[in-house]
């Protein structure tokens, strides 16, 4: 193999198979000490075992309850299927779905090897992963909706149908990666399907559809076999067309996924925000826009307004996502709390890329001739408005659809917005992970506290400043009506949090963010 790679008189001698080439690379890596160590395997197995032990029983009771949901609304079930399929399509489109390692993208793509052999393992990984997800979704759906006892043949049929559906979504994403024009033509219909399915899930309790009987065994197995046959045929076509895939698109996907892997492996996710921001602006043609001074607004806030004008698509997605807590109205209180706070943080983070840039490179801030406190206070205006608007809309929809106590939930959302914005601002100003801190000894070994402290930065303020809203969502109001006292308490928490944060963490004399 080495001789075939190192020398040869003709092109045929250089045409090594992809299997031989990968085997040769693995052999060289192993001889150089690049194989996976037993310590890495031990840490991975221990992490999986701990996660299963901690979350497995509770997750199992949620996904496979002892009794099924009584009379599930067909519209809600169909809507959830649409959300899952469209969401999977969009996720695969963002990630690749065909991804190879960055060394392979740099060296093996340019080698005299057929691209089909190089990309076949990536195709197998993508198809198998989506098939496993489809089977899991189908099994969970049967466990939550089917009457007891569950027929084994029906469960197997639904699992086959779900796995084949997942494979078809992955194969469509592979076709879109090979032909971007075809993928762009389908992005908007899939997005419309996602939003329409979410809206259907919201209106299902208000306008219930007539019940639909479960398909009989012959119909179920016919649909499953047809889906499996279509998936097999699509896989064969995808394998034949692997040679047509552009190397540039493969390298882009490999760089993106490789960066996420680096962040997970090195416990250094602090640069992912900058990576995501750069990727969102890459390839966009922007025209210069004059910054118009508005009376009473600082220049930093006006710049944030310009950024918002250029992120209209993100604002549209955030507006649609504000209905997510309402779609989860029947979930436990902690699920609603997580959905609300995560959405508020995402909304506030829309314009905080400038804060991350100014924290890492304060030279531009010094040119403005303004103190750090003035800059941070100005940068807080847009996130506070976005978080308040998103939280107000989300809680208003949740109050209308769920069985929460009646009251001014919209006002509570407006009041919690500044608190969420302060937490997002603190997270945006977080320094890189400090790996020089002393190790913390635990019964399972020592670990560096730097990554944990970085992960908790901002979340500490979020938990402390949103206590009234969290208590209201968890049902701790102590009455059947949400009074204005809870809104005033949350407004006081938010105001005190903003004032304390600006006073204690910003410099009023120097231009340092």
TrEMBL record:
The keyword Lyase does not apply. It comes from the Bacteria. InterPro entries: DUF6297 (IPR046264). Pfam families: DUF6297 (PF19814). The chain crosses the membrane at residues 32-55, 75-92, 122-147, 153-174, 186-207, 219-239, 315-331, 337-355, 376-397, 409-428, 452-475, 481-504. Keywords: Membrane, Transmembrane, Transmembrane helix. This is ABC-2 type transport system permease protein. The lineage of its organism: Bacteria, Bacillati, Actinomycetota, Actinomycetes, Micromonosporales.
